[in-house]
Specification:
alpha/beta, Luciferase, domain 3, GMP Synthetase, Chain A, domain 3, 8-stranded mixed β-sheet, 19 helices, ANL_N_sf, propionate-CoA ligase activity
Length: 664
């Protein structure tokens, strides 16, 4: 049932008062980071450590092995056991008497509709839709494509798949038919779940046409599709032989589907990487390991427990959406906020803070890009100051490297909140390096992702695969195998490619593809992707370090630095910059930029070219497409344009600005 926002706020306020009256919250005492790290990395102790971390997880049958090394380097966690992700997220909380607790808060900036789902209501909806899928022949081990906007039915669909033991592959709703078709071809789904439309600030995306074209491209023109008809945009011209109406099918269900226990090593979901470099890869991971990872991270890193509210400003099509909207908060019995909107422009840069106040958000997860956009539109914090943020205990930043200036801005505006710039990947499934709330909380160093999370044995290597022990010396970041629970199991349908791409450079290590360094205190600095470390006249330069210097300068809203081919020096850095104020003297600020880089990085990092742009090319998840900028700077006739790009219209504008610079 959809409600007015003021009615929902009244319900939440009443629930909050009841909690305060009848329950005293118990918080975890801080535990030893060093002890967790030691136990998680010691081959003699790590299995006992992760077994202890999985004790809060419900197992229908206990596992035979915590870590199965029989097919190394393809390690598997919790083999022989039986569990279920959706049961652990929903049913066990209902059975424990918490069915009336709020599980999901949904709000759409476009339709102005809001919805609240208790755990009991969510269990009912998920079990009913699981029956809908089962009636269409979906069963354990089948794959299901979900191509949907940020609506509650998407969350319900994902959990319904998990309830059956089906393997979902969520495809971001902004993808064109060709990309969706490629994923259909690769995953070979039993059914597709979609909606009539996705909503953007200035447009409506009709999904059915995309789905129909994609099914032909993917070789499944007659596959069944379930469609959620949105009130704001109903698709009238559909083939009813292929499309099943979500509401009509749900109305037919008289009894929901029971939970299907699955092996701990059973595939959980397939998720394609956002593809900032190279082609997107279909990553899959297993249920048992991811459950243990969720339980650990949500407790020690994010401090989410029963009735705690978490708001992840992301999309379900990305790993952050999977982890911190759909599953993570619910594993711990918390409340998840699902938002169809943007950090700015829907309606303004104060919307995130308004939602924090309205829903009493305890933990906020947001990409640095989102914060920079808010900072650009509300630098003085006038919109932010209009809201009561006392509930907000922590802000977590990931998805790309966060520049120190953005960290400082957040700290200045929200000084009471714990700031956590954490680093991880779609491949790793949860943070590799982070700060902590229920382990020791370390002093923050802007620009650093703090210290390695327990279970991740991180080292820095040089180009000859020698481990670098000298502090602050950059190299490629590698992780010693086996990786902890939650790490990817492989590439869907091609585990050999997984071994060749990730596990043999060198053998026995996972190659992250990121470059960075570790300081004398053990803090990790992720500087760039390894292909973003450029060699200028024999000097290795991190473009991330130059970006850090630039974003520290007043007047610069955002920037990206890439390498440009140079016949004399090999490569030289070039900067693409968005100004805070378009009216400033560009020649003057360019001199300041060049002087600052020369002083703080070195004369060898001379920044000869600075391109001023209105926007930077980004993926839908907010990652800057540096390969595209590199191609533009090198005058590549057909620049690499990933299908995940948010706005193709920025490309000709950037090319125009760059060509104008060359002609000066």
């Amino acid at each position: 049932m959809y409600l007015q926002r003021r009615h929902i706020l009244g319900c939440l306020s009443k629930q909050s008062q009841q909690i305060q009256k009848f329950e005293v919250r118990a918080f975890s005492a801080k535990q030893s980071y060093e002890e967790h790290r030691r136990l998680s990395l010691d081959p003699a102790a790590r299995e006992k450590f992760w077994e202890d971390q999985s004790k809060e997880i419900h197992w229908f049958k206990k596992y035979d092995k915590v870590l199965d090394q029989s097919k190394a380097p393809l390690y598997r966690w919790f083999s022989g056991g039986l569990t279920n992700m959706s049961y652990n997220c929903i049913d066990r909380h209902v059975e424990a008497g918490r069915g009336g607790d709020t599980a999901v808060i949904y709000e759409s900036a476009f339709t102005k509709r809001t919805r609240i789902l208790t755990y009991q209501e969510l269990q009912n909806q998920v079990s009913k839709f699981a029956r809908v899928l089962s009636n269409q022949g979906v069963q354990k081990g089948d794959t299901v494509i979900i191509y949907m906007p940020m609506i509650p039915e998407a969350l319900i669909a994902m959990h319904a798949c998990g309830r059956l033991g089906a393997i979902h592959s969520v495809v971001f709703g902004g993808f064109a038919p060709e990309e969706l078709g490629n994923r259909i071809k690769t995953t070979n789904p039993k059914i597709i779940i979609t909606a009539s439309a996705g909503l953007e600030p200035n447009r409506i995306i009709p999904y059915c046409d995309n789905v129909d074209k994609a099914c032909v491209i993917g070789g499944h023109p007659d596959i069944k599709r379930v469609i959620v008809q949105r009130r704001s945009y109903k698709e009238k011209d559909i083939d009813k032989r292929l499309y099943l109406d979500y509401d009509e099918e749900m109305a037919k269900v008289t009894q929901g589907h029971d939970v299907v226990p699955v092996e701990g090593t059973h595939p959980f979901f397939i998720l394609y990487t956002s593809g900032t470099t190279g082609s997107p890869k279909g990553i899959y991971r297993s249920v048992g390991g991811q459950l243990a990872a969720y339980n650990y991270a949500m407790n020690y890193i994010f401090d989410i427990g029963q009735r705690d509210v978490m708001f992840a400003s992301s999309d379900i099509g990305w790993i952050v959406g999977h982890n911190f909207i759909i599953y993570g908060p619910l594993v711990r019995g918390g409340t998840t906020v699902m938002y169809e909107g943007k950090p700015v422009g829907t309606p303004n840069a104060g919307v995130v803070w308004r939602m924090v106040e309205d829903y009493k958000v305890k933990a906020l997860f947001i990409a640095p890009t989102g914060v920079r956009a808010i900072k650009k539109d509300d630098y003085e914090g006038e919109l932010l100051a209009q809201h009561d943020l006392t509930s907000l205990k922590s802000i977590h930043l990931a998805g790309e490297r966060c520049d120190p200036e953005t960290i400082r801005w957040l700290h200045k505006k929200i000084p009471h909140a714990h700031l956590n710039d954490n680093w991880w990947q779609t491949e790793t499934g949860w943070p590799i390096s982070s700060n902590y709330i229920n382990l020791e909380t370390f002093e923050m160093k802007p620009g650093s992702a703090t210290k390695p999370c327990p279970g991740w044995d991180i080292k820095i290597m040089d180009d000859d695969d020698n481990i670098i022990t000298e502090p602050d010396k950059p190299g490629k970041i590698v992780i010693k195998l086996p990786c902890p629970p939650g790490h990817m199991d492989g590439l869907w349908g091609n585990d050999q490619a997984y071994v060749e791409k990730y596990l043999q450079a060198p053998e026995g290590w996972y190659l992250t593809g990121d470059a960075g360094q570790i300081d004398k205190d053990g803090y990790i600095y992720v500087l760039a992707r390894t292909d973003d470390v450029i060699n200028t006249a024999g000097h290795r330069i991190s473009t991330g370090r130059i970006e850090e210097v630039l974003t520290d300068l007043k007047g610069i809203a955002e920037c990206a630095v890439v390498g440009k081919d140079d016949s004399l020096k090999g490569e030289v850095p070039i900067a693409f910059i968005i100004l805070q104020d378009e009216k400033v003297d560009r020649k003057e600020i360019q001199k300041i930029i060049q002087a600052e880089v020369r002083q703080k990085v070195g004369a060898f990092a001379k920044l000869e070219q600075v391109v001023f742009v209105q926007k930077l090319p980004k993926t839908r998840s907010g990652k800057i497409l540096r390969n595209l900028l590199r191609d533009i700077s090198n005058n590549v006739q057909q620049p690499r344009v990933t299908p995940t790009i948010e706005d193709r219209g920025v490309i000709p504008e950037i090319i125009k600005s760059y060509q104008a610079l060359l002609q000066q």
